[in-house]
């Protein structure tokens, strides 16, 4: 005998990840989560930040990551582009102000609570495809977190290792000899395994990482007032000293215009790299064609935008800000982004021009001179391209000033990696939790932070002095984050314009689409050239996928229910009345049109339910089955006197039905849940339940109720006929 048309364990066709459930009263027509209309309930508010600060102070926190790139960016620019470096930097400034700044200003308005592009992407691309896309974004975010720290540490070690102070160099020599002596007493297998590890720069890098980690333990709770004060002091000192170096260089170039003329003559004649064959001069078109392919190598100067959005909860807004749409916070964050972008672009342009023109090309290519520390080279009074000493630029330059500048550079680089690492606890674990991985206990213990810290030590020791490996991975992650941000902004604008009825040709935002194409192409090019960042990100994705699948399957019978929200006051009062019923009978239905009168007759006949007992129909609709926890919306209506409990925003039909029965069982009579018999294959049913939330409903409802933490006499009964 076929099963009746009320809900059985057999699942319907799996829903498309792009389909949305039909809107209901109390639920917006665009499918977005509705706001509760219950005036007695507290309105949802974002998680409170430890404190809020004026945006100039938050700018100092952002400056740790953003402005610290001045320590190495001019050297990287010359290494990648030669004498074309200033021209390529002009393009980098245009990309910053024309692409990155508009994208992140838009995201700041659409995600003002610290989620950044991650939160926006999760909202605009739902379903399993969205979760996979989000996982890839988190993977590159994790790579960014790790290699920001390792690359900053390695470049800080470059400044310390090659500081020419005699006493310091003597101390490093003594430490190196002591290490070699200690290694001589090790067993042969230990000597072989430690070959190449006891390198001066590697040891200095590990020491810096240990000291910055110890400093981080003081601020383990996140961005505190003391951390912001330390950041402000560090950024202020570094910017002032950098301004002295760069400003002195600009003044020297103004007084010696022949240096600029000589540099431009080399650029125009094709003499872009010393010792390389010069191409035939081709005018501005040839220059532009030579500069554009070099853009990806110089994009580290864009680092810092994503961190700005993560730090948005720190920004103080207006007193009358709406917690859901804090316009004051958004405005101040956009002001912060603009000022940071303009300041950084100005510093990059001037510092690259000064170092490219004034520093001899040979010094730019040799470790210990200007490579990875070109501004420090000038601060120490290094030789200029015209044969003069940099002291001719400014008499304060020399050993003392250069040593102080090295110390300021090391401080901002060490804190730059630490500031990004502080976002770890509030960024990655919540999204992994929504993938089905339980991370509440690990966040309390800091397990993920310790795992990433251990990975940083391993990478520092493994790559040793190969700073380019750290840089390539860091650059890949930065470009990938920009590409995902542009993708999220593009999709969001498309969806909003679609909802407003715009024509298709006008729905695409051209600036965001160009930004997506630019950053996407740059990411692919860098990953193809040096794939270390993509490999680490791929390993992260594979590991999390395996763990999340195992965890989600293991926790599939967990009662992942937060609370019901009610669509209106009528529903809330009706729910209270149902909770007081003596023996409620719940009959789950499939979504679609139903003749409730015929269904009631069929159910009462087959389940032998007396006419004196009231029947309540439950209609649960799955919204996004990829979500793990659910906060359903309930609307109760009557159809010719028959009660229909309509539950939307579910990630699993079984969990919604079980939650409904358990909530009604708290007071009054213990309900019964009646199902039809299922003819579905058990394996298919379980797979549909895990992936789409709609399979094996009777058995899962029974399991969830049986495992619920309530007294046995208050557990609803499940009847299958």
N- and C-termini, Cα separation: 11 Å
What is the spatial order of strands in the main beta sheet? Answer: 1-4-5-3-2-6-7
SS summary, helix count: 28
Please state the structural category.
Answer: mainly alpha
Outline: elongated
Which blocks of ≥5 consecutive residues have pLDDT under 50? 1-50, 685-693
Q: Tell me the total number of β-strands.
A: 7
What is the share of helical residues?
55-70%
Strand content: 5-15%
Radius of gyration in whole Å, from Cα? Answer: 31 Å
Largest sheet: 7 strands, mixed
> What would the average pLDDT be, to the nearest integer?
78
Task: Explain this structure.
It comes from Gemmata palustris. Strands 1-4-5-3-2-6-7 form a 7-stranded mixed β-sheet, with helices on both faces. The protein is 60% helix and 5% strand. It is mainly alpha-helical and 721 residues long. Helix 2 crosses helix 13, helix 5 packs antiparallel against helix 17 and helix 5 crosses helix 19. The N terminus is likely disordered.
């Amino acid at each position: 005998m076929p099963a009746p048309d009320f809900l059985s364990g057999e699942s319907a066709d799996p829903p498309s990840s792009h389909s949305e459930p039909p809107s209901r009263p109390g639920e917006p027509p665009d499918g977005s989560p509705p706001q509760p209309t219950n005036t007695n309930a507290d309105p949802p508010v974002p998680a409170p930040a430890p404190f809020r600060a004026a945006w100039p102070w938050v700018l100092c926190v952002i400056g740790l990551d953003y402005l610290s790139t001045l320590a190495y960016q001019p050297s990287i620019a010359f290494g990648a582009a030669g004498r074309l470096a200033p021209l390529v930097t002009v393009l980098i400034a245009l990309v910053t102000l024309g692409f990155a700044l508009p994208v992140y200003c838009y995201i700041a308005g659409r995600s003002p609570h610290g989620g950044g592009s991650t939160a926006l992407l999760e909202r605009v691309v739902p379903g399993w495809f969205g979760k996979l896309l989000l996982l890839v974004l988190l993977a590159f975010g994790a790579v960014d977190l790790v290699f920001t720290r390792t690359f900053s540490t390695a470049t800080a070690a470059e400044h310390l290792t090659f500081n020419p102070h005699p006493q310091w160099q003597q101390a490093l020599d003594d430490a190196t000899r002591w290490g070699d002596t200690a290694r001589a007493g090790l067993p042969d297998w230990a000597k072989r395994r430690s070959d190449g590890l006891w390198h001066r720069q590697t040891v200095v890098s590990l020491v810096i990482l240990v000291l910055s980690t110890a400093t981080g333990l003081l601020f383990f709770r996140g961005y505190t007032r003391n951390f912001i004060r330390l950041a402000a002091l560090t950024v202020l000192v570094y910017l002032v000293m950098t301004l002295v170096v760069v400003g002195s260089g600009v003044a020297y170039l103004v007084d010696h215009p022949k240096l600029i003329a000589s540099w431009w003559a080399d650029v125009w004649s094709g003499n872009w790299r010393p010792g390389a064959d010069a191409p035939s001069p081709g005018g501005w078109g040839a220059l532009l064609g030579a500069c554009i392919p070099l853009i990806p190598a110089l994009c580290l100067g864009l680092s810092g935008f994503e961190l700005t959005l993560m730090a948005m909860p720190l920004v103080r807004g207006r007193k009358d800000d709406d917690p859901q749409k804090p316009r004051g916070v958004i405005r101040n964050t956009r002001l912060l982004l603009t000022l940071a972008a303009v300041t950084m672009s100005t510093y990059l342009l001037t510092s690259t021009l000064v170092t490219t023109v004034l520093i001899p090309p040979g010094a730019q290519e040799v470790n210990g001179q200007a490579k990875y520390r070109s501004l420090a080279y000038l601060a120490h009074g290094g030789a200029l391209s015209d044969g003069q000493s940099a002291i001719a630029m400014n008499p304060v330059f020399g050993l003392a000033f250069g040593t102080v500048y090295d110390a300021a550079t090391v401080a901002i680089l060490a804190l730059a990696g630490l500031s990004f690492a502080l976002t770890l606890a509030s960024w990655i674990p919540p999204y992994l939790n929504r993938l089905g991985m339980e991370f509440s206990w690990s966040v309390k213990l800091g397990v993920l932070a310790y795992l990433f810290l251990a990975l940083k030590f391993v990478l520092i020791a493994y790559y040793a002095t190969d700073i380019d490996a750290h840089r390539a991975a860091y650059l890949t992650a930065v470009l990938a984050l920009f590409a995902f941000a542009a993708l999220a902004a593009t999709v969001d604008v498309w969806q909003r314009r679609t909802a407003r009825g715009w024509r298709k040709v006008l729905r695409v935002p051209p600036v965001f689409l160009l930004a997506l194409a630019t950053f996407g192409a740059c990411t692919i090019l860098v990953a193809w050239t040096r794939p270390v960042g993509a490999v680490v990100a791929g390993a992260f994705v594979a590991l999390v996928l395996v763990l999340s699948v195992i965890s989600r399957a293991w926790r599939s019978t967990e009662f992942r229910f937060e609370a019901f929200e009610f669509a209106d006051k009528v529903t809330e009062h009706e729910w209270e009345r149902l909770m007081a019923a003596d023996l409620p009978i719940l009959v789950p239905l499939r979504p679609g049109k139903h003749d409730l009168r015929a269904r009631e007759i069929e159910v009462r006949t087959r389940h032998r339910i007396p006419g004196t007992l009231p029947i309540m129909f439950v209609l649960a609709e799955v919204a996004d089955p990829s979500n793990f926890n659910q906060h359903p919306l309930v609307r109760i209506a009557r159809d010719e006197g028959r009660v229909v409990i309509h539950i939307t925003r579910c990630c699993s039909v079984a969990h919604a039905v079980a939650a409904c029965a358990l909530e009604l069982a708290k007071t009054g009579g213990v309900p019964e849940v009646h199902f039809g018999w299922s003819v579905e294959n058990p394996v298919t049913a379980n797979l549909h339940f895990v992936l789409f939330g709609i399979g094996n409903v009777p058995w899962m409802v029974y399991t969830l109720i049986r495992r619920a933490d309530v007294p046995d006499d208050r557990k609803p009964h499940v009847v299958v006929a």
